[in-house]
């Protein structure tokens, strides 16, 4: 059974940094695309970043480019999100997700983590 466990959220002041991690188990994820989404109160869930396990190709949402960086360790089945220069608008629950392609990840991931809360104070 596939399981994704998200950790690393917390409370931080604007301009600060956090590092989120997602530990995957129950399958070999090196052939999958893994990514992060977020959902702020009263808003729809939105894509943040994704990375291919096979090619290492990354993609980031425009709203986080230059501030957030996604990475992964295939040997450990983990994906990380380094978040720098955080803004109050980044406050949300962040979710890890996995799917077979970038397209299917954006549309309908196969599996979700439980989410981790990130709160950025001004």
How does this model look, in words?
The longest helix has 6 residues, at 102-107. With 122 residues, the chain is mostly beta strands. A hairpin with a 6-residue loop joins strand 4 (33-39) and strand 5. The strands form 2 sheets. Strands 2, 4, 5, 6, 9, 10 and 11 form a 7-stranded mixed β-sheet that branches. A 4-stranded antiparallel β-sheet has the order 1-3-8-7, with no helix packed on it. It contains 1 helix and 11 strands, in the order βββββββββαββ. 5% of the residues lie in helices and 51% in strands.
- Based on helices, strands and strand pairing, what is the structural class? mainly beta
Radius of gyration: 13 Å
Sum up the overall morphology in one term.
Answer: globular
Query: What is the chain-wise order of helices and strands?
Result: EEEEEEEEEHEE
Q: What fraction of residues sit in β-strands?
A: over 45%
Mean pLDDT over all positions:
96
Main beta sheet? 7 strands, mixed
| Gap from first CA to last CA | 40 Å
Helical content (DSSP H or I, runs of 4+): under 10%
Total helical segments: 1
Number of strands: 11
**Weakly predicted, low-confidence segments:** none
